[in-house]
Design brief:
The protein is an alpha/beta fold. It has 16 helices and 13 strands. Helix 2 (60-77) crosses helix 16 and helix 9 packs across helix 15. The structure holds 2-acetamido-2-deoxy-beta-D-glucopyranose (2 copies). One 2-acetamido-2-deoxy-beta-D-glucopyranose (NAG) binds at residues 46-48, 78. Its EC number is 2.4.1.221.
């Protein structure tokens, strides 16, 4: 099967690329099923070049947040965005990471309505040998570590990410001070754009390979709107459909996201120790220019608040099912007991699957989520894009 696809790729690339390339190894990187349609089709080369990056900061919530800024950045520079695999950190193997093809979770086609994109697996299998031969593989670092070296592949997930595609960098560039520091990713600004193009023209730098996402965290308000192009894959939406049919009897429901685990509790402690006006995803409810300290309970709501808010919303929408996604099962168990008296059923996904749970939250009549959590942020953006109402814990 692999040999067959490889041969098809070989033929199509030879038809569109007029010069001789060594396809001796013809490496195929495992792609997700939704992506297989690409293999065997001719893929045009973008003369403006490409942008690649490692989603090397945080887990799904952060990666999906910074993806939007990176997408916007690529469009501003008019380079094709190479969709990186998602980085996951398996519990069974601390200190390592695995690369999950982008399109396992998110569809490629809707993104291309906004800008040209290609999955990293497809790029590396079909185009890299032509567009990005080993002697053109230059790594991009904002600043060199300790002013000395890029160290782009040092540590986890940095090393495993590029090694997954057998990418070695021939050399590195430091771009932060050449482009304008904190504004480097505002590629819609003409000065910023021309600084990029003058310093790193596509002929010499066909692929800008960034050590981290070329986008802000948290995502800026204008880029948040790009979430409307982010659609769950068939793999995820199929599971959602099954869950809504089997566990919710196709009834209307409201959803809540409770980030309550012990790691989260210590993260929230920051708000007790400092008068923080911005913390993680907080601009999603306080805006980019918040002036008041964020109350602790917004990050870590009391169970009383959770009960009261959930009950109010369930009554308002006249539903008997509340879907709950949480990292703390004891909270769920206590809520379940309390809500029994109210004739309200607490429903959850067993075993938990974070992406499926998020997608279920996206379908609820109303959702209550955590203002500080980037996982919640995904739900909020998806629901905004569908004009569905969302509120936050402990914020009026
Ligand atoms: C962006 O790149 C595409 C494809 O290379 C090209 O067709 C288009 O004209 C470019 N747009 C601008 C504004 O340069
Ligand atoms: C609430 O839903 C029930 C069925 O679940 C229905 O019988 C009742 O009329 C609804 N009440 C309102 C106010 O919509």
């Amino acid at each position: 099967m692999h040999y067959y696809k490889c041969l098809l790729t070989w033929i199509t690339i030879h038809l569109v690329v007029p010069f001789d390339i060594n396809f001796g190894s013809c490496t195929q990187y495992p792609a997700h099923q939704d992506n297989q349609a690409n293999v065997g089709q001719a893929i045009a080369i973008d003369p403006n070049g490409y942008i690649a990056y490692c989603p090397c900061m945080g887990r799904w919530g952060n990666q999906a947040d910074q993806f939007l800024g990176s997408l916007s950045f690529s469009r501003g520079l008019n380079r094709t965005l190479i969709l990186p695999p998602w980085v996951e950190y398996p519990e069974w193997s601390p200190g390592t990471s695995v690369q999950i093809p982008f399109d396992k979770y998110i569809r490629v086609q809707p993104l291309s309505q906004y800008h040209r994109v290609i999955t990293m697996e497809t790029f590396m299998s079909n185009l890299a040998a032509t567009v990005w031969p080993p002697n053109k593989r230059i790594g991009f670092c904002f600043y060199y570590r300790e002013n000395k070296q890029c160290a782009m592949k040092e540590g986890n997930p940095f090393g495993p990410f590029w090694n997954h595609f057998e990418i070695q960098f021939k050399s590195y560039v430091e771009y932060g001070n050449r482009i304008g520091g904190g504004n480097a990713y505002y590629s819609f600004n003409e000065h910023v754009r021309s600084a990029w193009n003058q310093n790193f023209p596509a002929e010499k730098y066909p692929v800008m390979a960034f050590s981290g996402p070329p986008g802000d965290f948290p995502v800026k308000a204008h880029d948040r709107l790009l979430h409307k192009y982010v659609k769950w894959s068939k793999f995820i939406s199929g599971k959602v459909k099954t869950f809504i049919k089997d566990s919710l009897d196709k009834q209307r429901f409201v959803a809540i996201h409770l980030r309550m685990g012990s790691d989260w509790k210590s993260a929230c402690q920051h708000l007790k120790d400092h008068e923080a006006k911005n913390y993680m995803e907080s601009p999603q409810c306080y805006g980019d220019n918040n002036v008041k300290p964020i109350p602790y309970k917004v990050c870590y709501p009391s169970e009383n608040d959770i009960f009261r808010q959930t009950k109010r919303i369930a009554r308002k929408y006249n539903v008997t099912n509340v879907f709950i996604a949480t990292d703390e099962s004891s909270v769920r168990d206590r809520l379940e007991q309390k809500f029994k008296k109210e004739q309200i059923r607490i429903v959850s996904l067993n075993p938990p699957e974070p992406h499926v749970e998020l997608a279920i939250i996206g379908r609820a009549e109303h959702a209550i989520v955590n203002c500080i959590s980037s996982f919640s942020g995904f739900a909020k953006r998806e629901r905004d894009a569908k004009n569905k109402p969302t509120t936050f814990w402990s914020i009026k």
